[in-house]
Request: fold
Amino acid sequence: MDSSASVVLSSPCAKLPNLEGNHGNIEKGGVAPFIDSAFLQKQSQVPTGFVWPEADLVSAHQELNEPLVDLEGFFKGDVVATENAAKAIRSSCVSHGFFQVTNHGVDLNLIKLADDHLDKFFKLPVEEKAKVKRCPGSPYGYSGSHADRFSAKLPWKETLSFAFHQGPNPVVADFCKSKLGKDFEETGRVYQKYCEAMHNLALSITELLAISLKVDRMHYREFFEDAHSILRCNFYPTCQEPSLSLGTGPHCDPISLTILYQDQVRGLDVFVNNIWQTVRPIQGALVINIGDTFSALTNGMYKSCLHRAVVNSQKERRSMAFFLCPKDDKVVKPPEDLLRTEGMKRKFPDFTWSDFLRFTQYNYRPDETTLQKFSNWLLSADNNKHL
Reply:
């Protein structure tokens, strides 16, 4: 997740700049505020702003040996199956924090429908997509290659992100209706249902994570019941020089838990044992990975691992990432039972999700050192003046 500071969904954006002529600046090595997939796919050479350092571009030559966890027994209350699932999850989370789940309870027809609706938005003219552009400091709305935030190491992608939380108002559906108009009412309903399904699955996974850590089964579920999460839809266009650019650069997710749907086009890589390894697409499965915030909730026992998205010259790639996040004012700290059972000292100070998100927005892109640097910053004498 390329993080942004948390603000209310209705915050007004600055007036949109004139789109005319922006694309021409890219050819000269500049950066345009709005760069969409239609423009990127026309480029026979990667523009300067999209070229990544060689160290980030080393190819993955093997698959990650992450567990495929069948959740059917867990949902049926099978004690043995639940314990086996928890053991597999613990093994992967101590190592790298990635696993995949099947029989997860999310309607596969709903997932396909949500995937089908991606093109409806991303195939719009750039001027239409720009009407819902992401406001400064907000993770919600449309972004074309994050060119409004950065001028170098730009991702070869575009995104559309929604805020989600449980409540009487269907926030995702309302956003689509108010910002995108009547033509996107059905899209809003689809993504509202998708978020609700992912929220329920995320809570179930937090139960399994608690079991795997041998703490109260409901500890993390109760912590995230009122979560304020994010759904991010990603579109990675084809690239004629894929060895020079990346769909998403190496990063660790600052959020708590990511539930990723990826289509059958390979592209997700994880950095494990000092090499890049591919996370294979499995029909019907969802990829789960631990983020920095959940790592802090385990006192660092469970890993938040570097990962990236690569591009190719043959096929577009699509994915949908549901980011489980605590409510802004929730205090992030590990359960006392875990510290006592594992005989651990605290590695990180208490913090709130809103402060951590703000730190990642205004300091640098998240990497494997972000959580520790944030902790050091929190403990420094002059941190308050930066909040």
